[in-house]
Amino acid sequence: MPSIISNFESLEEEDISRYSGEWIAVIDSKVVAHGKSFKEVYSFVKQNYPGKRALIGKLPDANLTVLNIH
Amino acid sequence: MSFNFKYKPVVLKRGSKIYRPLIPITINGKEAFDALAVLDSGSDITILPKEIAEELGVDFKGDNEISGIGGSPLKAKEGKINITFGKGIEIYRFDIPVLVPTEKENLSLIIGRLGFFNQFRITFDESQKRIEFKKSPDIIGGYLAVREDSE
Questions:
Q1: Mutate which of A46, A63, A67 to disrupt the B interface (most B C-beta within 10 Å)?
Q2: A67 touches chain B (CB under 8 A)
Q3: For B120, how many CA atoms within 13 A lie in the half-sphere containing its CB?
Q4: Interchain contact A3–B (C-beta under 8 A)
Q5: Domain range holding A44?
Q6: For A34-56, how does the pLDDT look when each residue is reduced to its tens digit (9 = 90+)?
């Protein structure tokens, strides 16, 4: 299974709700980093897991709204 | 043929838990970047966080504004990304237009309708907490691709 899918599906077993509103990085089906900024999480992954494919994203929080073009 | 992804839990500010439709996509930039994105049928277009756009070397230009319900408009520039999306034997690769907010950071990657929702028949199955994707047979553009897994 490609790592992106296994990393994504692992989020069903792990309680990611604790990271709401934060950036997370998932490698080998585990959340290996989380934080308030993309740069912080991305730099950590690049430094500590060179060459590994990570699934990275910011989990939405209560502030997410519908967006429209003006 | 079809494939699906399950919703993921998110905690709201008041403490209650809801499930939101998140999906995994690969952005094919100067390097492949696997991103966790929010699938949002209420958003006209995909919103790509500036931090990711800059890291991947995505070109963005022009002047636009985006807004949410009750929110102040945000300045944004236009761009285009090539993405790989799918599951199992159904892997598709295609371009989607994006807006990159330039004055605000720390936004989620939001996959909006333009360029994405016309690729599939998408069902938000709230009872099963999952999103089902069925490739639209009459779609021009987008093609089956082999997912590159560099590990």
A1: A67
A2: yes
A3: 25
A4: yes
A5: 4-58
A6: 999 999 999 999 999 998 999 99
